[in-house]
Design goal:
Elements (H helix, E strand, L loop, with lengths): L17 H15 L11 H21 L4 H13 L3 H14 L4 H13 L3 H14 L4 H13 L3 H12 L5 H13 L3 H12 L12 H13 L3 H15 L6 H13 L3 H14 L6 H14 L2 H22 L4 H14 L2 H12 L8 H4 L3 H14 L3 H14 L8 H13 L3 H14 L3 H13 L3 H14 L4 H13 L3 H12 L7 H14 L3 H14 L3 H13 L5 H15 L6 H18 L2 H10 L2 E10 L5 E11 L1 H6 L1 H24 L1 H9 L1
Antiparallel strand pairs: 1-2
């Protein structure tokens, strides 16, 4: 047998799914269905035959599935369309035997009776419905509406009363109230409101909602019973108390009083509510209070409400995070600008009670300013020196001095005692600080204090203690020596400098040496200055030291100063020949050249010109951190003539370069002799 082979095995461009095939088949099936034929009934026999067939169809459908209520309703509505009310009623009754909880079935049954003006039958059905299903509000609404449409006001009221016994939802009560208001029965409506609000004594279980009280009060206000309305609001405030306060109640109460032009009562209501309602629940209250003050208050009242609002905001921030010290600062600034001293102290006490949980200085830096601001407030604003002293003492006792301290706090405490003219306490505070937790700042502050008091012996003792604590601090040595210099004790100052430069470890030795040298220059001890330079050069061969030494010799002002200066430069040049930092050697030669240009002769100028280096560009290979090649780098190098003369290889290399250059020039001349002839003729 011959088998057919598929030539193109690629998938089709348009893919058709099984779901699509089924959907298209269903759609075409609906299109092909012919419309049902129209039947015309011409006599009674055909009508009876038609009724028989339809009833048989409906009965068969019901027999197949009795629980499908839609079949019963369609059957009854068909009988109703034929004006067979008794048959339709029988069908509805049979359906109710099957499912009496079906709401739609009751509604359709009652609507059928009402459409056919069978009022008593409809009442009977509604009574059965509300008795069987009393929690279905739709039955009650339909029943009361039917009675009202029939003009049976008493019957409708009776139905409402039966409904209210079941304690329905809020809308049912309002429907009853609106029903009474439609017939101008205000007293009856008030009675319903009272029953609505109160159940026996208090209807707490059913509807303890604020809006129900507000609606009751507005009802009284609408009918011009203002005293009753105020009484309702007062009863509501008393009923809810301080545990279940709601801002909507107070806003409504205040607006009512505002409409009655009772502005003082409005202000009292707002302030009473703002003092007791939680801040996060009083935003609407704040807004309405602000609007009221803008309309009827003065500038002071507006400022008070704005400050009060900001205060509540800060309260929420510090309550959410008690260690948010920035929020405390803002809160304290606000309180200081508006509140009395006791309130400010209370907020300060609350703020400083939030001690950082970790004993690390970075966590205490913001916190300590709370104490500082507290002390400054007590001193400057409250004028309470005794409380200020207590604040400072409590703060320095709280700080863990074994781990860290705050010199600022000790110094502020001492300065406060000095302002109070209590010098012994100031000295005692600073002495205690140095004993517990010595710091450079504390020593400096204490010394500055004694200097201002001209207690120089105390300053000497403090400097001694300071230098025992921090012998590497060059600034302290310099200040100590300067103090002795001011006091005229030159030998003592020189001894201090000698002690300082003999220390094994210093933080800024160059500053110390410079100060010592300047001191000797001021005293015009030039020989001692030279010795100091020589001693310094034994420790370091830095180019700036040589240059400074040379400039000192130049400024000495004697006849041999030029020769001494030139000799220093020569010594420096010899000493720095082996220096790896060629830039420093270049700096020295440039300084020497400037000196020779100003004070030297032609011979010395020519000599220094021969010593100046040649600046050349070089390349070097770079390597990355992992050892791989990173390319080439260009840099500048210096070749000194003195170094070239001492290195024959460099001299040979220079001669080779010169020979190569000469060879290239001669080859160029031999290649183009005609060009030379033409040039000579021209």
């Amino acid at each position: 047998p011959v088998t057919s082979q598929v030539k193109n095995k690629a998938p089709a461009e348009v893919q058709i799914t099984a779901e699509q095939l089924l959907r298209e088949a269903k759609e075409r099936e609906l299109e092909l269905l012919p419309p049902p034929p129209q039947q015309k009934i011409t006599d009674v026999e055909e009508l009876n035959d038609y009724k028989l067939r339809k009833r048989k169809t409906f009965e068969d459908n019901i027999r197949k599935n009795r629980t499908v209520i839609s079949n019963w309703i369609k059957y009854a509505q068909w009988e109703e369309s034929l004006k067979e009310i008794q048959r339709a009623r029988s069908i509805y009754e049979r359906a109710l035997d099957v499912d009496y909880r079906n709401v739609t079935l009751w509604l359709k049954y009652a609507e059928m009776e009402m459409k056919n003006r069978q009022v008593n039958h409809a009442r009977n059905i509604w009574d059965r419905a509300i008795t069987t299903l009393p929690r279905v509000n739709q039955f009650w609404y339909k029943y009361t509406y039917m009675e009202e449409m029939l003009g049976n006001v008493a019957g409708s009221r009776q139905v409402f009363e039966r409904w209210m016994e079941w304690q329905p939802e809020e809308q049912a009560w309002h429907s009853y109230i609106n029903f009474e208001l439609r017939y101008k029965e205000v007293d009856r409506a008030r009675t319903i409101y009272e029953r609505y609000i109160l159940f026996n004594a208090l209807l707490v279980i059913v509807h303890p909602d604020v809006k129900n009280w507000i609606k009751y009060a507005r009802f009284e206000e609408k009918h011009s019973y203002f005293a009753h309305a105020r009484k309702v609001y007062e009863r509501a405030v008393e009923f809810f108390g301080e545990e279940h306060m709601d801002e909507h109640l107070y806003v409504a109460f205040a607006k009512f009083e505002e409409n009655q032009k009772e502005f003082e009562r409005v202000r009292v209501i707002y302030k009473y509510a703002l003092d007791r309602i939680p801040k996060q629940d009083a935003q609407n209250l704040f807004k309405n209070y602000t609007i009221f003050e803008k309309k009827f208050g003065d500038r002071r009242g507006i400022e008070d409400i704005i400050v009060s609002k900001r205060r509540f905001q800060y309260e929420e921030e510090v309550k959410a995070n008690p260690h948010n010290y920035d929020a405390w600062f803002d809160y304290l600034r606000l309180v200081e600008s508006d509140a009395d001293a006791e309130t400010v102290r209370e907020v300060y006490e609350r703020a400083i009670a939030n001690v950082p949980p970790i004993q690390e200085k970075r966590h205490w830096k913001r916190y300590i300013y709370l104490w500082i601001n507290y002390a400054l407030y007590e001193e400057l604003e409250a004028k309470a020196s005794k409380r200020t002293r207590q604040v400072y003492q409590a703060c320095v006792e709280l700080i863990p001095h074994k781990k860290f301290t705050f010199a600022k706090m000790w110094l502020l405490y001492a300065q406060f005692e000095i302002r109070q003219k209590n010098l012994p306490l100031a000295r005692r505070a600073l002495g205690t600080s140095i004993g517990k937790c010595p710091k450079n700042k504390l020593f400096k502050g204490y010394i500055e204090l004694e200097l201002q008091l001209r207690e120089f012996d105390r300053c000497r003792k403090l400097y001694e203690k300071f230098l025992e604590f921090a012998p590497e601090n060059c600034t302290s040595w310099i200040k100590f020596a300067e103090l002795e210099t001011i006091l005229g004790d030159i030998d003592r100052a020189r001894a201090i400098y000698e002690l300082a430069i003999s220390q094994p470890r210093l933080d800024m030795p160059e500053v110390l040496w410079k100060s010592y040298i300047d001191f000797e220059i001021e005293q015009e001890e030039y020989e001692k200055t030279r010795n100091l330079y020589r001693r310094l050069l034994q420790r370091t061969q830095h180019v700036k030291v040589w240059i400074s030494f040379a400039q000192f010799e130049l400024s000495a002002g004697r006849e041999e100063s030029l020769s001494r200066c030139r000799q220093i430069y020569e010594e420096a040049n010899k000493a720095m020949r082996n220096c790896e930092e060629k830039e420093e050697r270049v700096m020295l030669l440039e300084s020497w050249k400037n000196f020779e240009e100003e004070f030297g002769t032609d011979t010395t100028k020519e000599r220094i010109d021969k010593l100046m280096p040649e600046k050349i560009k070089k390349r070097r290979k770079l390597q990355a951190e992992d050892g791989s090649d990173a390319g080439w780098e260009e840099y500048y190098d210096y070749i000194f003539p003195e170094d070239t003369a001492n290195q024959p290889n460099l001299k040979l290399l220079a001669m080779a370069k010169l020979w190569k250059k000469q060879q290239q020039e001669s080859e160029a001349a031999e290649v183009d002799p005609d060009k030379d002839i033409d040039e000579s003729q021209s």
